[in-house]
Amino acid sequence: MRAVLTFHSIDDLPGPLSYSPAGLERMLDALDEARLPVLDLDELLADPDANGVALTFDDGISTVFKTAMPILAERKLPAHVFVITNWVGGDNRWPGQPDRATPFNLMDWSQLEAIQSGGFRIEAHTASHPDLRKLTDAQIDAEMEEADSAIESRLGRCPRYFAYPYGYYDGRVRAIASKRYRGSFTTKLDYLDPRSAADALPRLDTHYLRSPTFVRALAGGPAHAYIALRRALRRLRGY
Q: Residue 104 — φ and ψ, nearest 5°?
């Protein structure tokens, strides 16, 4: 069983973007009990027969530095953080963000450098978090280039992976992303399988993975059926 897990913020707030610190500890214990190792994306994606999960954090919220890093560092576990480079050190109130969205502060470059030193990898989520489908080819490429250049300049490493803002993409966006990144991630709720396209990879949103009992059974048929049901409901709601 292979899956990429999506987090945003590690905190005790209500809402779908928050996952509690205690919940993260319980999840990691449950993965260990289920013998599902936490791997980095290179390991997980390179081998279709690999068994395990990768941890990803979208947007670069400051609780990743304050809360997630100490928990993962103690266990010596890797993770990947997708950052919006023009908003580093700011907050998540970029144009196009829904008014109802919970406001979060974002990590600054010194914090990103610290988590990179602690074993996290900093990946690309564009420069400004637009709906890429609404941009020209040149604008799409510029969003990616600006983000990649900022990360490489500040942190000394060009990102290998990319997450589509809002999970929005089309064939044109995919084609441009595929020229830059080893893998590009969507918000499609699904496990990885050998048919997963590198430029449209699914993930499991941890909003649906709050029960340690469920996490321990993540590789089983009932869990796959539950995720398939949730995926269908999300499609009906337009997600």
A: -135, 140
CATH number of the structural domain spanning residue 205: 3.20.20.370
For the range 115-118, what are the long-range contacts, defined as Cβ-Cβ under 8 Å and sequence gap of 24 or more?
115/64, 115/65, 115/69, 115/81, 116/155, 116/157, 118/69, 118/72, 118/73
- Examine the pLDDT at 234 and tell me if it is beyond 90: no
* Token representation of residue 21: 């610190």
What's the residue count for the chain? 239
Between the alpha carbon of residue 181 and those of residues 67, 102, 111, 223, the distances in Å are 28, 30, 24, 30
pLDDT tens for 168-197 read 999 999 999 999 999 999 999 999 999 999
Structural domain total, the chain: 1
Burial of 102 (0-12, 13-18, 19+ CB in 10 A): middle
Secondary element (H or E) of residue 120: strand 120-124
Q: Which two tokens stand for residue 148?
A: 């990649």
Q: CA 104 to CA 60: how far, in whole Å?
A: 10
Of the pLDDT bands very low, low, confident and very high (cuts 50, 70, 90), residue 96 is confident
Domain ranges, residue 94: 2-236
**106-160 residue pLDDT tens:** 999 999 999 999 999 999 999 999 999 999 999 999 999 999 999 999 999 999 9
Residue 53 CA to chain centroid, in angstroms? 12
Phi, psi angle pair for 168, to nearest 5°? -90, 130
- CA-angle at 214, arms to 209 and 215, nearest 5°: 65
Q: What element of type H or E holds 57? A: strand 52-59
pLDDT recorded at residue 116: 97
Please compute, for residue 53, the number of CA atoms within 13 A of its CA located in the half-sphere on the CB side.
Answer: 27
